[in-house]
Amino acid sequence: MLKSRKTYALIIVLMLSLVVAAGCGGGEAPSNDESANGANADKAINIKIGHVLAPTHPYQTGLEEFAKLVEEKTEGQVTVDVFHSSQLGNEREMIEALQMGTLDMALVSTAPLAGFSNEFLVFDLPFIFDNRDNAYKVLDGEIGSGILSTLESKGIKGLGYWENGFRNVTNSQRPVIHPEDMQGLKIRTMENKIHMASFRTIGADPTAMAFGELFTALQQQTVDAQENPLPIIFTSNFFEVQDNLAMTGHFYAAAPMLISKQLWDGFSPEIQNAIQEAATEARDFERETVASMDSELLGTLKDKGMQVTEVDKAEWREAMQPVYEEFEKEIGADVIQKVLDAQK
Ligand code: EAX
């Protein structure tokens, strides 16, 4: 009798724990499919967006503005969480994750994107843009949107071009004024063959590396030099490991805002319009922030002990000109001419 009671009790306990386990099981975060279709109206759809820069960089403050606008314009149906400092992967990894639909959104530079769609290469030619207004004219026009749309067949939707900025060379070895001063300097570049060719052309020794590894590589002197806009040199504390700053402005880095096409296609047109509107308004906010930081930071970086040199941009443009010949066939001479003509 006693034995059957014990067995009976055991069976009840077992059944109960199975029911409990079934109740909590699902544990998985709601999948994109579920959130994309907005399975139920009162459950907000949460989007995660990643970038590789510091929490004080305009990428972050711009994306926080974007998040605020998305929530407002969708009346809380969509919320956005922003992840800085490569928490969701480096730029190439995030682009791959967007294609697979395992990441919702990312803000990256055009440079690594050229590895996924050749058409982006034209934007990374040295000195292709004279100033940021000309860059906006091309990027926000037919040429820019045409090139962004080449990502759609690769599973990614582009929502416009934010700004990283005009890139300048820093190094730990010596002041740089002329291109030949770069001779033999080991320089980190982004993962982009035009960036590497441009520095090889002036005698430097380029190494492609993800942004997240850069500060340590500079600190340990695995590389002597790097190149980035002033807002990154400041917000990523490169002035702590680089003494010299040459105002070369050799590349203009645009930063496309990207969303996984799988997620985008699952949204209603109303939600799509709201997100696109927010992306454009926050873009202008972010561009203004970068432009004002750019004009203010030179003094700050000098105060941080950096030795700043001005250079003759025409001399550097000429020294890097062979890169145009080297990639003309791959990019298309007509494409390069179209971008140059669009700035006239
Ligand atoms: O897009 O890697 C870089 O130097 C870039 O400026 C950075 O990834 C931001």
Please, could you describe this protein's structure?
This protein is of the alpha/beta class and 344 residues long. The protein has one domain (44-341): 3-Layer(aba) Sandwich (D-Maltodextrin-Binding Protein, domain 2), CATH 3.40.190. The protein is 47% helix and 19% strand. The protein has 15 helices and 9 strands. The chain has helices at 2-24, 32-36, 58-73, 91-100, 110-113, 132-139, 142-149, 193-201, 214-219, 230-235, 261-265, 269-303, 313-320, 322-331, 333-341, and strands at residues 45-50, 78-83, 105-107, 156-171, 186-189, 205-208, 225-228, 244-260, 307-310. Helix 3 (58-73) packs antiparallel against helix 12. It starts with a helix and ends with a helix. Residues 25-39 have low confidence and may be disordered. (2R,3R)-2,3,4-trihydroxybutanoic acid binds next to strand 8.
Provide key terms for this protein.
about 350 residues, alpha/beta, D-Maltodextrin-Binding Protein, domain 2, seven-stranded mixed sheet, two-stranded parallel ribbon, 15 helices, 9 strands, about 45% helix, globular, binds (2R,3R)-2,3,4-trihydroxybutanoic acid
Task: Report the CATH architecture.
Answer: 3-Layer(aba) Sandwich
Helix content: 40-55%
> What fold name goes in the CATH topology slot?
D-Maltodextrin-Binding Protein, domain 2
Class by SSE composition:
alpha/beta
Count, helices: 15
Distance between the termini: 97 Å
